[in-house]
């Protein structure tokens, strides 16, 4: 039997071959470039930590970081709020909502469409002069002059946040529902018998038991949010305007590398982004776990 | 609830209605009554950009990526699950750590590698890396450990089947539900991938749908709103129809992917 174990290597060999060449080597190469002044042609000259010191004082990168957090934060709060309200309604034993699969499908649909189509669609719906949204609002008499949604830093960021909410709340809703279906119905029945109202059921039973799922959604959403790229890129034609308010970290990385040929510096941006992601994920993990410990002591 | 469903749908509705109206009609106001400029819009759009080409390219890439990911991830997961060999644990943990690394981290290195290998502006760097998908391997390994009993493998060995035959005849059919679940993810992920083809593909006739949509915005078509809406509609409607039939499976796969903790 023992001699068969060498087959294990054969089974995993294709994976490792491709993984080494197309995943690990590029990550290592980017790491090397982050210490050089490579411009995409010629040779790369090692410049030490210069790219990283530049990164720390780069006001554009800091702005991109803050923008990314703002856009993600507004979107995440709205998205989770919506998803939780919907989940509470659908899982309520007293309401016995019908048509769950129909609504799940409708809510999820926006998430399935290619982001570039979504960006294009909202780009023209929100257009200042001809956009249907302004036309509708003006016909209804809600506004007298067209609003230039994508040309004011504040409305531009909120618009992008809302589009992201529109795209993602259905996904979160489905994941939360999956988590709720994993909770034993005994808990809900007991709460019903004890006369707990909807709010109490949600706060004392559903949310605590959903903690692993909520952590999962938060981490994946945060990692995805920090990598926000497609939507701002397409809506602003890659510029990140107005006033750089839609410039995200990955858009900055993309422009530094493939627009300005600063491959060395863009590599440092990539690693900066990576470090930020790790730090934020660690913070989310810690805060979730420490609150669990506190609860344990109370009991 | 219904309001929310309507809000979800309104942008699509506006798109569909506006796709059938002429530029002038869209500029003067919005109605829910379809116009009669559909053919005209189609002509205008096709004069500049052939959305169907992007569709075909995206489909080609996504199908190949899905097949490669499914087959090779199953192979790797099986190797990790049913053989003991030196360095197995190290390789597995290393793979899990690499799973956490965001895609952008290697983007520049990946571009340079493709340049060195001379595979820029081809589909190779978009398709071949699908062979190594750590998350799918991880998911399939967990699945096969609980569903495939080692005695089945031993029975097949006693019957004289070779190791690879056992994998193909015994393991793959048992893994099929999990592979199907992951395939839906893989397909959607590949279909929606924007940054990789944007960086790697230069020839317009090779553009994938997401890149082509971006290209549409900067082109002459953007002046004709009706054609723009139609272009977007063409990129969206087939997905909506496919989703109509597959929504149950897609939603189940999201649920299955989420509860892994």
Automatic annotation (TrEMBL), chain A:
Keywords, ordered alphabetically: Cell membrane, Membrane, Transmembrane, Transmembrane helix, Transport
Signal sequence bounds: none
Official protein name in the record: Sugar ABC transporter permease
Residues annotated as domain ABC transmembrane type-1: 65-284
Family: Belongs to the binding-protein-dependent transport system permease family.
Localization per Swiss-Prot or TrEMBL: Cell membrane
Record flagged with keyword Transmembrane helix: yes
InterPro entries: ABC_transporter_permease (IPR051393), MetI-like (IPR000515), MetI-like_sf (IPR035906)
Species this chain originates from: Metabacillus flavus
SUPFAM superfamilies in the record: MalF N-terminal region-like, MetI-like
Transmembrane segments annotated in the record for this chain: 7-33, 71-90, 102-126, 168-188, 209-229, 263-285
Higher taxonomy: Bacteria, Bacillati, Bacillota, Bacilli, Bacillales
Membrane topology: Multi-pass membrane protein
């Amino acid at each position: 039997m023992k001699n068969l174990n060498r087959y294990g290597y054969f089974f995993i060999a294709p994976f490792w071959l491709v993984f080494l060449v197309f995943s690990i080597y590029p990550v290592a190469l980017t790491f090397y470039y982050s210490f050089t002044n490579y411009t995409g042609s010629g040779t790369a000259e090692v410049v030490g930590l210069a790219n990283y010191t530049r990164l720390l004082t780069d006001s554009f990168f800091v702005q991109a970081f803050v923008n990314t957090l703002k856009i993600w934060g507004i979107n995440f709060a709205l998205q989770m709020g919506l998803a939780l309200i919907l989940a509470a309604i659908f899982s309520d034993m007293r309401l016995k909502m019908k048509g769950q699969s129909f609504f799940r499908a409708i809510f999820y649909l926006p998430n399935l469409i290619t982001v570039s189509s979504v960006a294009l669609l909202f780009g023209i719906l929100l257009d200042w002069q001809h956009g249907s949204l302004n036309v509708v609002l003006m016909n209804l008499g809600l506004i007298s002059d067209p609003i230039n949604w994508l040309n004011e830093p504040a409305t531009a960021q909120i618009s992008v946040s809302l589009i992201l909410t529109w795209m993602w709340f259905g996904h979160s809703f489905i994941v939360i529902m999956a988590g709720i279906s994993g909770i034993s119905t005994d808990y809900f029945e007991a709460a019903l018998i004890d006369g707990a109202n909807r709010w109490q059921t949600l706060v004392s039973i559903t949310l605590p038991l959903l903690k692993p799922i909520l952590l999962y959604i938060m981490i994946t959403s945060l990692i995805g949010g920090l990598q926000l790229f497609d939507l701002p890129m397409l809506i602003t034609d890659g510029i990140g305007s107005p006033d750089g308010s839609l410039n995200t970290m990955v858009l900055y990385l993309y422009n530094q590398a493939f627009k300005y040929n600063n491959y060395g510096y863009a590599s440092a941006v990539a690693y900066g982004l990576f470090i930020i992601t790790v730090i934020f994920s660690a913070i989310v993990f810690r805060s979730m776990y420490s609150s669990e410990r506190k609860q344990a002591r109370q009991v | 609830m219904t309001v929310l469903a309507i809000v979800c749908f309104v942008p699509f509705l506006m798109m569909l209605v506006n796709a059938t109206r002429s530029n002038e009609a869209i500029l003067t106001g919005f109605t829910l009554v379809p116009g009669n400029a559909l053919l005209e819009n189609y002509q205008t759009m096709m004069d500049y950009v052939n959305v169907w080409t992007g569709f075909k390219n995206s489909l080609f890439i996504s199908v190949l990526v899905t097949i490669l990911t499914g087959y090779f991830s199953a192979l790797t997961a099986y190797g990790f699950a049913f053989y003991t060999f030196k360095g197995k644990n190290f390789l597995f943990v290393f793979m899990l750590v690499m799973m956490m690394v965001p895609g952008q981290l290697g983007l520049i290195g990946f571009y340079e590698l493709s340049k060195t290998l001379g595979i820029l502006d081809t589909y190779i760097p978009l398709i071949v890396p699908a062979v190594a998908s750590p998350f799918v391997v991880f998911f399939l390994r967990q699945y096969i450990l609980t569903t495939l009993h080692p005695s089945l493998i031993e029975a097949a060995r006693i019957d004289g089947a070779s190791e690879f035959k056992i994998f193909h005849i015994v393991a793959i059919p048992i893994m099929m539900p999990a592979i199907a679940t992951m395939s839906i993810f893989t397909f959607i992920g590949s279909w929606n991938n924007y940054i990789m083809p944007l960086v790697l593909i230069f020839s317009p006739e090779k553009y994938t749908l997401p890149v082509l949509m971006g290209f549409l915005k900067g082109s002459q078509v953007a002046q004709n709103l009706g054609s723009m809406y139609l272009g977007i509609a063409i990129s969206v409607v087939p997905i909506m129809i496919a989703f109509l039939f597959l929504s149950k499976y897609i939603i189940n796969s999201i649920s299955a992917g989420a509860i892994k903790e």
